[in-house]
Design goal:
138 residues; 20% strand; globular
Length: 138
């Protein structure tokens, strides 16, 4: 099975979501001076959306820094994004941006720290996703 990497701001919403998934995950640090993870295996990225009213700045700087490494970016297999539905069309926009720029699927969107239903769907979806990835790699 592949890995999970996530970024969570000080609000901790994304960290709580990932913790509730019960899957081992590497965290992209908040501090820009801290070393970023270098996943050795394929992974799915979970990220919140940071955006102004126009969508500018949707992908957190720390996530951009993480994905700027070509080896890391080459292991990215999908993205899951969070956001706030109050932002309408910009909801979870970071996922759309990353999926398009990196050529990977946007697997799921959830609001804030997610619901119990979100956790169940993502757990089942990741299990199916990795089984499909592994079967297509052979």
């Amino acid at each position: 099975m592949g890995g999970l990497v996530f970024f969570s701001s000080r609000s901790g919403n994304t960290a709580r979501f990932v913790e509730r998934l019960g899957i081992d995950a590497e965290r992209i640090p908040i501090a820009s001076s801290a070393p970023v993870p270098a996943p050795a295996r394929p992974f799915v990225l979970v990220t919140p959306t940071f955006a102004d009213g126009t969508g500018s700045g949707a992908v957190p700087r720390q996530v951009i820094r993480f994905l700027n490494n070509p080896d890391t970016r080459g292991r990215l297999r999908g993205v899951i994004a969070s956001g706030n539905r109050n932002f309408g069309a910009l909801f979870a926009l970071a996922g759309d941006v990353i999926a398009e720029k990196c050529g990977v699927p946007l697997l799921y969107r959830f609001e804030l720290a997610g619901t119990t239903s979100d956790i169940a769907r993502v757990s089942e979806g990741l299990d199916r996703f990795w089984k499909t990835q592994l079967s297509s790699a052979t």
